[in-house]
Structure of Putative E3 ubiquitin-protein ligase ARI6:
Amino acid sequence: MKISLGSVAPARSACEKLTEIMWMVCMKVNDVAFLKTACQQVVSSRRFLKWTYAYGFFATYAADQRKLFEFHQAQLEGTLERLSDILENTRWESYLLTEVLSCQPFYELRAHVISLTGVVHDFFSKLQDAMQQETLVLPTGAAATKRKLPV
């Protein structure tokens, strides 16, 4: 089953389809709750990320602050894409087969998705807080610690 999380509406329906399928094979609620959480995080992070581009365009950051902002933006984007890729390209139905000898691969993938969801949530929250409180600044003395390259 290929699931697309490229935009908000399809992502919501994808989440519903995933949880519906997992319910059909009588998995426990706690075993599949991570899918809904991960899909919701992808949706909210993508929505937030698209507005960071406009914010970054109009922000009046110094050069070092702009680089820091763009670094945090890129970290969120990269981790979000990894999570989205796993959710979209995993053949979830292969975990539903009754002939499967072990559930271990499912639980390993589940742990990985939960971990990535937490990382995306942390990047999302910290970047959002920094933008709201305008605290996206370099640590004191960071500019002074830069080394000049010999010419």
Summary: The two ends are 57 Å apart (CA to CA). Residues 1-5, 140-151 have pLDDT under 50 and may be disordered. Residues 28-133 form one domain. Residues 29-58 form the longest helix (30 residues).
